[in-house]
Amino acid sequence: MASGEFIASISPAEPTGTDYATFDTIEGGSTVPERIGVYDFSGSDEEFMDFACVLLPQYDGGGLTLRIIWSASVGFANHTVWQAAIRRVADDAENLNTSHNYSYQIVEAAAPSAVGEVSYDEITFTDGEQMDDLEAGEKFILRIKRDPAHPNDDMAGDAELHAQDLLIKET
Amino acid sequence: MAVLSDAERRKLWAEFMDGQSAARAQMGTLTKAELRAAVDAVDEWVDQNAVSYNAALPEPARQQLSARQKVAILAAVVRRRTEVQHG
User: Fold this and answer.
1) Over the stretch B8-41, which tens digit does the pLDDT of each residue have?
2) Smallest CA–CA separation between B62 and chain A, in Å?
C-alpha cells in the first residue's frame, strides 16, 4: 500500500483500568448546538486512553503515522505533550494478562490559537521496535496519553482529544 | 497557621485547573507554572495577612468567632463580591 494511505481500523475509545481520561462534550455555538464528544486529559495528572486496532493486510512496512485532533479547554498558544504507543497482539503469542512495557512516541503540540479551535498533529512510528514489531493483519492496542510532567507540557487545563477522529496512515 | 505544604498547593492547583476546564473558563496564554506561582503567591499573601485580617474584625466577633468561622466569613464576602462584580 502506498505511503499516506489509511492503514488501520480503530475501535471506539476504551478507558484504561485506572488513570483514564474522562469523557466530556463541547457544546457548539450554532442555534441548534453541536455536541462534540472529547476525552479530557488533565494538565496535572497522567491520564490514558486505549484503542483496539487492526493493521490492515495491505500494510507495506513503511512505518505508521497517527493523526490526532485535539483542542484546549481554557488556554491557547502553549504546548501539550501527547504520547502514543503500540502493543502488538500477535496470534497465539501475546498474553494480554501480562504486563506490557509501552514504548511511547511523542509530539510536542502547540495549542490552537483560540479556545474552541482544534489542532491537527501527528505522531510517527518507524517500522520495527517503535511499532512493537507489529505486522500486517494483526490486532494491536494503541495507547494515547498526555505527559503533563514533561517540561515542555506547559498548557494549563485540560487537553481534549477528539477520539473519534483518529487516523492511522502508512508513513 | 503556616503556609500550605507543597502537596496541598499542588492539589489546589490541580483542582483549580480541573474546575476551570470544566467551566471552560479561558486563561489565555497562562502556563501551568505561572498558574502554580499564582497559587503559591496567594497562599503566601494569606499567611502574611492573617494577623491583619483578624485585627480588622470588630469585637465581639473577633473574640466570639472560631478561626474556621472567621475564614468562612472571609470566603463568603470574597465570593459574594465576585458574584456582584462579575456575575
Assistant:
1) 999 999 999 999 999 999 998 999 999 999 999 9
2) 39
Looking at chain B, list the stretches that DSSP marks H as alpha helix, in order from N- to C-terminal side. Answer: 6-23, 32-56, 61-64, 67-86
Cell of A47: 491520564
Number of domains chain A is built from = 1
Complex ipTM above 0.90? no
Q: pLDDT at position A3, please?
A: 74
Q: Which of A42, A75, A153 sits opposite B28 (nearest CB)?
A: A75
Q: What ranges do the domains of chain B cover?
A: 1-56, 57-87
Answer yes or no: do A156 and B25 touch at CB < 8 A.
no
**3 state SS of A107:** strand
Task: Give pTM, 2 decimals.
Answer: 0.91
Q: Which domain holds residue A21?
A: 8-170
Amino acid at A123: I
Interface of A with B (CB under 8 A): 26, 40, 42-45, 73-78, 115, 148, 153-158
